[in-house]
Design goal:
The protein has six helices and 26 strands. It is mainly β. The protein folds into two domains: 225 residues, Alpha-Beta Complex (Sulfite Oxidase, Chain A, domain 2), CATH 3.90.420; 169 residues, Immunoglobulin-like. The longest helix has 7 residues. The radius of gyration is 22 Å and the shape is globular. The protein starts with 9 loop residues before the first strand and ends with a strand. The structure holds the ligand Nc1nc2c(c(=O)[nH]1)N[C@H]1C(S)=C(S)[C@@H](COP(=O)(O)O)O[C@H]1N2 and molybdenum atom. Pfam families: Mo-co_dimer, Oxidored_molyb.
């Protein structure tokens, strides 16, 4: 059931004394990373309870610095650079927000995911490096099938300050880190960005590298290890972390009782999630879950000649109703998703120094205690969610994924 999410107009105690103490936050948002800058996600079950479209106040926030104080009336977008095709220095464009708003626009839903989603699970293996944002050159936008947009609205409202008021770029299917917030300049260039963070973040380095070795071998500059696209992933949201079920006289009375497992899945490149499977026996056998994919009714469609090309940029929800007794001899529930290119998830996590792109089978452990006719089930997630202590100093970023409708300037 959706919780009341209108109570957003309070300053979080963690923000007091920081440059962000003018931004109101939803009280349920869980602080990740250090006190400042603000990185937060909604508790997983609250996020899923909201349904397919996440309300703005519960949308995950990933900031690497203060939220800039920008204004609609004074904000400008400069487009400049060098046109490699025609060997021309371009005449810079200087656009106001009102100019941008007058371009033809369309609305569609996109799920954004930070490359650090499920990072905490990798930190359980070994602490990974805290990450920082970077910027990247994007020639990808010239292909209209990629649906690159300049967004100025989110869920029919102007973007909230945290989420890049007044303007951001959206690159569907790309990791959040390449989706620049507070956009003020687009420079067309034939060279890759030389920003420090372009090379030192949002990379999956081979597992044997720690920071020292990566620095020594200058491995950061190897183009093989850059991440742009999302990878296929799925998560169990119900049973929730530490969910507890006590069944009295279970073996006599309740053995037809059913349980509803739930979660989400997403993939890259506009591909469709085709199926999600659950295993109760460590991957020996798999049970097909039911998919809920509101996006299938209205995918983004590009017409090339007579061929419509649909793209799916949103997460899918899955569910599976099984008898509670299936958990009796089950030590662990695992989930894996498949997409239209037969891509699926690896069984085991692979640690990497930046703790990125973890998409191994998501596992929930079940601890069962049988005491006479009492039957206790305790569900244990791979990591503790968020920051249960209420402090603001947890550095184990696990930022999640959220979906919204974005209003786009189709320029
Ligand atoms: N200017 C700027 N853009 C940014 C960032 C940032 O810190 N500064 N963080 C990036 C990262 S790592 C992610 S995951 C997304 C998060 O977007 P959100 O906070 O609106 O969910 O924005 C990206 N764009
Ligand atoms: Mo990110």
């Amino acid at each position: 059931m959706a919780t009341n999410i209108t109570n957003t107009n309070s300053i979080d105690p963690c923000d007091v004394g920081t440059p962000d103490d003018w931004i109101s936050r939803h009280p349920e948002m869980v602080h990740l990373s250090k006190k400042y800058p603000f990185n937060a996600e909604s508790p997983l079950s609250l996020l899923i309870d909201q349904g397919f479209i996440t309300p703005n106040p519960l949308y995950y926030v990933r900031n690497h610095g203060p939220v800039p104080k920008l204004h609609w009336d004074t904000h400008r977008l400069i487009v400049d650079g060098y046109d490699d095709l025609f060997l021309l220095i371009l005449k810079p464009l200087n656009l106001s927000m009102n100019n941008i708003e007058k371009f033809p626009y369309k609305k569609f839903s996109v799920t954004l995911v930070c490359a650090g989603n499920r990072k905490k699970e990798l930190n359980m293996i070994k602490q990974s490096k805290e990450s920082n944002w970077d910027s990247a050159a994007v020639k990808w936008c010239l292909n209209d099938i990629n649906d690159i947009i300049l967004a100025y609205k989110m869920n029919c409202e102007r973007l909230p300050p945290n989420h890049s008021y007044p303007l951001r770029v959206i690159i569907p299917g790309y990791i959040g880190g390449r989706i620049v917030k507070w956009l003020s300049r687009i420079t067309i260039s034939n060279k890759e960005s030389n920003s420090y963070y372009h090379y030192h973040d949002n990379r999956v380095l081979p597992s044997e590298y720690n920071v020292d070795q990566a620095n020594k071998k200058n491995i950061w500059y190897n183009p093989n290890y850059i991440i742009n696209y999302l990878n296929i992933n799925s998560v169990i949201t119900s049973s929730a972390y530490n969910e507890y079920i006590l069944l009295l006289n279970f073996f006599n009375n309740n053995n037809n009782q059913m349980y509803n497992l739930k979660g989400y899945a997403y993939t890259d490149s506009g591909n469709k999630i085709t199926h999600v499977e659950i295993s109760l026996d460590d991957g020996k056998t798999w049970i097909l879950a039911k998919l809920n994919q509101p996006e299938l009714d209205h995918p983004v469609v590009l017409k090339r000649g007579i061929n419509p090309i649909p793209r799916y940029w949103c997460w899918s929800f899955w569910s599976l109703t099984i008898p509670l007794y299936s958990f009796i001899r089950c030590e662990e529930i695992s989930v894996r998703a498949w997409d239209a290119t037969q891509n699926t998830q690896p069984r085991n996590p692979t640690w990497n120094v930046l703790g990125m792109m973890n998409n191994s089978h998501f596992r929930v452990k079940i601890n069962t205690i049988v005491q006479g006719s009492e039957f206790h089930l305790i569900f244990e997630h791979p990591i503790q969610p968020g920051n249960l202590s209420g402090e603001c100093n947890d550095v184990n970023t696990s930022i999640t994924t959220s979906c919204s409708v974005l209003e786009i300037s189709d320029s």
